[in-house]
Design a protein that fits this description.
Layout: H1 2-27, H2 31-37, E1 39-47, H3 51-66, E2 83-89, E3 92-98, E4 104-112, E5 118-126, H4 131-134, H5 137-205, H6 207-224, E6 233-234, H7 235-253, E7 257-262, E8 271-272, H8 277-288, E9 295-304, E10 307-314, H9 327-340, E11 345-349, E12 356-363
Parallel strand pairs: 7-9
Antiparallel strand pairs: 1-5, 2-3, 3-4, 4-5, 6-8, 9-10, 10-12, 11-12
Helix pairs in contact: 1-2, 3-5, 5-6, 5-9, 6-7, 7-8
């Protein structure tokens, strides 16, 4: 008798359940649509980030849910972990999560909006058949709460962190770029003002030498103006600037200054940050051989392992006479760190034979790199 009563009760309960749903549908404008397409609960969330990021992270979070490593659904009569299936609906990929024995499943999709945001849509759907009668609202609510805790909130938080990180990186890059321009701009007038002061002084003593110095200054400016404010220069361009500067200083100092360049042809077009080499050369003249009776400055470039070494050596009194925290050396260190990070540095020291050497060390790049961005 009990079995018969239960068999009779089940259809009656189903009819009552269906009647309640039909009445609810008549009271809400969107409920009838949901009744027709099978939706029980629908949640939409706006996400910040590009389409690929949002879709890939959504797929990764869904895989975590179905991997068995996440907490289960927690409904006693259904399977704990969902099975994943995918299908294409229009232009969207719909991810469906189905729990064993559960008359509802969850559908997840991503939709790109015109304002650049992405819309995540999560809905519980009746699975068909008798599910229209036996789907329980409490189970649908439990599914949505489960998806909110294990998919929606982790995805929102991750994308917000990633967007914030990218904004910080963009701001950091802008700050570095501004810093490089400021540091570089500090070096340019530092050299030019000194040269003009020397030129004015020389014209008072020798018009011929003054004219020669002016020629070198014009050649320097002609060479420098195209790339002093550029992001990239080359070894040969920076050597050309250094040569004109040293020629100017040799006119002024006479036999007290000699210079030589040791640079393999294969390294002439290697990229080199602008205005660094001239700063080292100027430092060597001012601090290394200014008081010497026979000063010699040697500029050399060499590849050592995976690095390019650009060195300026003088035969002056050594490191004790050089201000290692002055404008020139300090600027070089800051600019190298900003451009290359920890993979570049400025080494200074006094060799055993005496004098002072400053060496710019940057990563070596195979081939003639950045040639299209080098002026000239």
């Amino acid at each position: 008798m009990l079995v018969v009563e239960l068999c009779l009760a089940a259809p009656i309960l189903a009819i009552i359940n269906a009647s309640i749903r039909l009445y609810a549908a008549s009271r809400r404008t969107d409920a009838l649509v949901r009744l027709i397409d099978g939706s029980l609960l629908v949640d939409t969330v706006l996400l910040r980030g590009n389409v690929l990021d949002c879709e890939s992270e959504m797929a990764r979070q869904i895989e975590r849910i179905t991997s068995g490593q996440m907490p289960g659904l927690g409904r006693l009569i259904y399977g704990s972990h969902a099975k994943l299936t995918k299908r294409i609906r229009g232009k969207q990929t719909v991810h469906a999560l189905t729990w064993l024995g559960c008359p509802m499943h969850v559908e997840i999709s991503m939709h790109a909006l015109e304002n650049g945001l992405q819309q995540l849509r999560v809905r519980t759907v009746r699975s068909g058949g008798l599910a229209w009668f036996v789907a329980a609202p409490l189970d649908a609510i439990a599914q949505m709460q489960y998806m909110d805790s294990n998919l929606v909130q982790p995805l929102v938080n991750l994308l917000e962190r990633r967007t914030a990180q990218r904004q910080r990186e963009a701001l950091h890059n802008q700050t570095i770029e501004a810093q490089l321009r400021i540091l570089q701009a500090q070096i340019e007038p530092h050299f030019l003002f000194n040269t003009l002061a020397n030129l004015r002084q020389l014209y008072r003593t020798s018009a011929v030498d003054g004219e020669s110095m002016l020629d070198h200054l014009i050649a320097y400016l002609r060479s420098a103006m195209e790339n002093l404010r550029a992001e990239y220069s080359s070894v040969v361009q920076e050597m050309d600037l250094a040569m004109h500067y040293l020629a100017i200083m040799q006119i002024r100092m006479g036999s007290r200054l000699a210079y030589r360049f040791v640079v393999p042809d294969a390294l002439l077009k290697h990229p080199l940050p602008p205005a660094m080499l001239i700063s080292l050369v100027e430092n060597a003249v001012k601090h290394g051989i200014a008081e010497s009776s026979e000063g010699v400055i040697t500029l050399s470039v060499a590849r050592i392992g995976a690095a390019l070494h650009v060195s300026i050596a003088d035969n002056g009194p050594g490191i004790s006479s050089v201000g290692g925290t002055g404008l020139g050396l300090s600027n070089i260190r800051q600019r190298l760190e900003a451009i290359y990070g920890s993979s570049a540095c400025l080494e200074v020291g006094s060799p055993v034979e005496g004098g002072f050497t400053g060496t710019i060390i940057i990563p070596f790049e195979e081939g003639v790199v950045h040639a299209d961005r080098i002026a000239g």
